[in-house]
Amino acid sequence: MRRLDTVSGVAAARGAASQAVVANGFVFASGQVPLPVDTNEPPADFADQVRLVLANLSATLEAAGSSLKHAVKITTFLTDPRLAEYNAVYAEVFGDELPARTTVMVAGGDFAIEVQCVAVVASADDAGGIRRIANAPGMAPVLGPYSQAVVANGFVFTSGQIPARSSMADQPEDFGGKVRQTLDNLEAVLIEAGSGLDRVTKVTTYLTDPDQLDEYNGIYADFFGSYLPARTSCCVDIWDIALEIECIAVVAPEQGPEDPSRTGRTRDEVAAS
Asked: How many Å apart are CA 13 and CA 33, to the nearest integer?
């Protein structure tokens, strides 16, 4: 395990944190903010803040023996609602090598944007490769510049899944239906990646209404059964969807991307459920 306390050209991490930690072929980068190394003031323009955050992230990954093209999962926290502008700059920086991504709106904070990342060490990628899944069959088109999942070093990193069926406008009306659709979408992505619900190691859930947690827990427990992963659930104050769910899972060595999950359902059956 290697810890990077400082990175040349990047402002020091705030609080008690390493800039990045390298372990088992992965780089885990701390959240990057739009803070120049020579001043305590972020750029005035939002797009310039995004560019600076991604430049800081790139420098951090390079110092850790990785790069943006080796990024497998990005999590973005926004306090500024200009998602379209963020997506435009983000797509320009990442090009065709898009990581899985989750983007949530949060209330308050010192900066308009913070971006954290998991990436593969370059030498580990040379040995095992990175596979990016643009979308799973039957799912709604992605809503931004991201892959639905990225497979690397035996793990699957999914983007945050939402309750969309054929499109963002096509969602179940009731909360329970939204939860089931989101979990069905998550399962479809896992199957496409050669994994399954029984191989999920960690789930992170973002809710917008804390009063719906009990209902969510009941549906979630039925869905996963005895294969309960580790989980973090939190409530985000600002967003336009009821929930978003992301996960990390282990690839099943005996399964290929065309095989059914532990439930015995094919990708098409999951998409049609």
From this structure: 9
Q: 220: Cβ–Cβ under 8 A, 6 or more apart, which residues?
A: 179, 183, 205
Residue 263, Cβ density class (10 Å: 0-12 exposed, 13-18 middle, ≥19 buried): middle
Q: E strands along 186-255, which residues?
A: 200-207, 230-235, 243-250
What single string gives the DSSP state of each residue in 130-154?
Answer: EEEE---TTSPPPSSS-BSEEEETT
pLDDT at position 109: 78
- Three-state DSSP class for 22? strand
Per the DSSP assignment, residues forming a β-bridge with 158 are 149
Residues of the chain with pLDDT under 70: 124-128, 238, 254-273
pLDDT at 125: 55
How far apart are alpha carbons 32 and 54 in whole angstroms? Answer: 8
| Residue 164 main-chain phi, psi, to 5 deg | -85, 140
- pLDDT given at position 269: 56
Cβ-count burial of 181 within 10 angstroms (0-12 exposed, 13-18 middle, 19+ buried)?
buried
C-alpha atoms less than 13 angstroms from C-alpha of 180 in its C-beta half-sphere: 11
Query: What is the pTM assigned to this prediction?
Result: 0.91
Residue 154: exposure state from Cβ atoms within 10 A (0-12, 13-18, ≥19): middle
